[in-house]
Amino acid sequence: MSLPLFALNTVLFPGCMLDLQVFEVRYLDMLKRCFKAGHGFGVVCIREGSEVGEAAQSFASIGCEALIGDWQQQPNGLLGIRVEGGRRFEVVNSKVQDDQLIVADVRWLPAIDELPLEDRHADLAALLDALGQHPMVESLGLGGSVGGQDALANRLAYLLPFSPEQKLSLLATAMPGERLETIQALLKRLKDGEP
Fold it and tell me: Is 81 part of a structural domain of the chain?
């Protein structure tokens, strides 16, 4: 499937919300086409380059579909949109159009079955609940209780201050239990002051 890409300095996860301000013509045109066709676009993390101006020179080969949930004109006159992370995908190949929009052929990664939370996940669930008290997290509706391991792993991976490479590794990991174990290990490293 061909998918337009929005290259950002962030990693979007399934079920997570992202607010964007759109002002570049390439992305405004992309959004018009997405609205008309009734589909979303892809979000990929920039490895080399900038979010604005010319297309990113290098970006991650794994990304997340962005489903447009809401839009409005911001007080500054820019278009504001809220997207929700959908399916994960792998970029097969890509090209940069004349308007600097990146379009890619993608392969959808398998859907992940939601597994119930176990007792050993109680600390991570409590951490998400605590994060949910922050006004920004609360405004995105990402705090509180979740339905299972996948949702918990996605929200924590999205919200916690891990490096882009660590977040991409978590996005690429299919098994929710494995992702939660990795998050535990990364949190221990953060607590110990390790990178």
Answer: yes
